């Protein structure tokens, strides 16, 4: 079983049709089948909710049903990592080390902390090229669903 850490930039492609959505659906199918385990931080859940809410005018159908389905799917299929002081302290170091945006540094820090506790290699999934560069430098296998 592989371990997948999901950044919001990739996960949102599950709920909005855009470049990379087919690859995201393939990766998500691995989670649904039990072949992979999905991990996301509470920051990722919040960012996903925000991204859908900010674009609710573009959603076909009932916005509330889309939000409910998205949150249910994330809660049922992913392990959600709380953001604590250890993650925030590491995120501050990563901002300086890689010149990352603040929220990206929190995602990378969460993945790094969690990777210490899993027995298998973790794959870092994102569509953010700067974040992927930093994740690769930190030793993660990376997947950009847009490629």
Task: Walk me through what this model shows.
This protein has 147 residues and is α/β, with parallel strands linked by helices. The protein has a single domain (2-82, 120-143), classed as Rossmann fold. It has seven helices and five strands. The protein has helices at 8-11, 21-33, 42-54, 63-77, 85-98, 102-115, 129-137, and strands spanning 2-6, 36-41, 78-81, 122-125, 141-143. The chain has a five-stranded parallel β-sheet with strand order 3-2-1-4-5, with helices on both faces. Helix 3 (42-54) packs antiparallel against helix 4 (63-77) and helix 5 (85-98) crosses helix 6 (102-115).
Please give a quick description of this structure.
The protein is of the alpha/beta class and 147 residues long. The chain is built from 7 helices and 5 strands; from the N terminus they run E-H-H-E-H-H-E-H-H-E-H-E.
